[in-house]
Amino acid sequence: MKYEVIIGLEIHLELLTASKLFCGCSTAFGREPNTNCCPVCLGLPGSLPVFNRRAIELAVTAALALNSEIRLWSRFDRKNYFYPDLPKAYQVSQYDQPLARGGYLEVDVAVGKRRINLERVHLEEEAGKLVHAGHSIIGSGYSLVDYNRAGIPLLEIVTAPEMHSGREARLFLEDLRTVLLYAGVSDCKMEEGSLRCDANISLRPEGSSILGTKAEVKNMNSFRSVELALDYEVQRQEKVLSGGGSVVQETCHWDEENKQTITLRGKEGSSDYRYFPEPDLLPLVLENTFVEDLGRSLPELPSERRERLREQYGLEKEEAFLLTANRELGDFFEKAAKAYPVYDNLFNWVQGDLLYQLRENDKKVEEIDPNLLAGLLQLLDEGSINRPVAKELLAEMVQSGADPKEMVRERGLERISGRDRLLPLVEQVIAENPEAVENYRQGKNKALAFLVGKVMAATKGRADPAELNRLLKEKI
Amino acid sequence: MPFDFGKEVDHVARLARLSLEEDEKERMAGQLSDILKTARRIQELDTTGIEPTSHVTERPAVLREDRVRPSLPLDKALRNAPRREKGFVKVPRITVSEQDQK
Q1: Residue A34 is nearest to which of B60, B67, B78, comparing CB atoms?
Q2: Same domain assignment for residues A61 and A129
Q3: Do A124 and A214 fall into the same domain?
Q4: Per the CB < 8 Å rule, is B99 touching A264?
Q5: What's the domain range around A376?
Q6: H or E stretch covering A4
Q7: What is the ipTM of this complex?
Q8: Which class is B1-46 in CATH?
Q9: A142 part of contact set with chain B, CB < 8 Å
Q10: pLDDT by residue (tens digit) across A383-406?
Q11: DSSP A408-465
C-alpha cells in the first residue's frame, strides 16, 4: 500500500531582548550557570512577573512577518508539569487565547511555490537547561540544572499538518528562519538552541482523509537532522503499518549519533498539563496603533528583497535567491554595487571568486569591506591590472583585508601595456630564444605560447597575453 | 458509572511526582470528591449572558521597558537548592519513563 506522509512542525525561538520576559535578568548566552537569576525567574514566593514591552513588540513583529492575525486581547496561562528545568513547576504560556492565529509562509519546494499555513503564534517563557551528566538524556546518573535560560521570551509557531516529506519540512524551516532573521526578532541559531523544532508525523493510506496516529519527534538540532529524522520516522512507521501493526502515539528522541529515533514515553494528553489562566498576569491588551506602527516599521522581508534585487540590479531569479538566502552576502553585494554599478560583473565575482576565497580562507563575508572589491573591479575594468592579478589580489584581500589599490601601488602591479613598453621586452625574448622562434616559423604554434610565457614572466604577469601574441607574430 | 477517585489520585500523584501511602490516597480521594462536589454546585449557577472571567480587574497588563537589572548573587540564588554542584542545581536521574518535556 502507498502511504501519504503528514507532518506538522512546532517551532520555538528565543526573542532578541536584553532582559527576560517577566524580569530584568540578562538573556546573555554563555554566562556562568545560575548567575542570571532572580526571585521572579526562580519562582520564589511573593515575586510577580511584569511583561517586557520589547518581547511583545518582537512577538507581534514576528507574527506580522508570518501573515498571522494579531489578536488585540490575549491571555497567559500556566502549563503545569513537573520537570527540573522549570523552577516554578509550571511554564507561563498561552493556551486558548494566543497572541496570533493563522498565518502562512510561501515556501519554494521542488514543484514550485507552496503555501504552508500556520495554526498559531504565541508567546511563552523559556525553560532552564539541563546538563546531563551521562552521555545522553537516557542513562544519565543525575542531571545539573542551569536556570539562566529560564524566563527568556520564547515564541512558539505551530504549523498546520501540511508537509509531506522530511525535505519539505527542512525547506519550510530554512525559509522560516530566513524570514525571522530578516524580521530581526531572533538570531535563530539551531546549534545554540535559540531556534528549535519538534515535529508531529503520521502516515495514512493514500486517498484517506483520516489522520493516522502520530508520533512526536524531538531533539533535532540542525536542518539536516530534521530531514534525516523525519525520513527515518516515515520508514519506521511504514514498516509498522505494512506489517499489519499500528503506530503507537509516542514521543521519540532523534539520536544523532546512531541516526535513528528512540521512544521516550507514551504521549500524555494536553489535559494533563492542567492549563489555567495565570492569575499573576492580567490579560495582554494591545492598542491598534501599537500593532499598526510595528507593521509599518517591519523590515524588508526575503520575498520582497528577492523581487527588489531582480528589479534594481537585473538579476536572475536564482541569483536573487542566493543573495537573499544568505543575507550577509546580499548586504555585501548591495554595498559594493553602490561603488561599482556594473551589476552582472559584480555578481559573477561575488558568486565565483569571492565565495570561493571565503570558503578557502574560512572567512565570513561580514569581515570583508565591500568597497575593496568594488575598487578591485574598477582597476580591472580600467585596464590597470589584468585578470590573473585581480584574482590574486582578491585572494589576498580576503585573507588579510588589504586594499587592492594599495597593493597595486606598493608592488608595482599595474598592467604593462602599449607598444612602446612591450616591444623592447618582446625583442629581447626573441633574441634570447632563437630555437623557439625557429620552431614557430616552422608552424609549431606551441612555440608562440612559450614565447608569450617568457614575456609574461619578464613582466611578472602584468602584460596582456593577447597583446603579446600580436606583437610577437608581428616581429617574427 | 461512578467516578473512580482512587484512580484519579494515582494519576495526579504521578503527574506531581508524589509517592503516597495507601491511607493518604484514601484521604485525598475523599477530599478530591468534596472539591469536585463544590465545583459542581458552582456550575449549577445560571451564567447565561456572562462572559467567561479569568481576572476580576478590567485593567490590561502593564508593560515594562527592556532593561537589564542585577540578578541575585549565585549563593543566594541557590540557597533553596537541596543539592548543587559547580554552580548548578543537582537533581536526581531523569529516567526514560519520567521524561516529560514541553
Answers
A1: B78
A2: yes
A3: yes
A4: yes
A5: 302-411
A6: strand A3-14
A7: 0.85
A8: mainly alpha
A9: yes
A10: 888 888 899 999 999 999 889 988
A11: HHHHT-PPB-SHHHHHHHHHHHHHH-HHHHHHHHTT-HHHHHHHHHHHHHHTTT-B-H
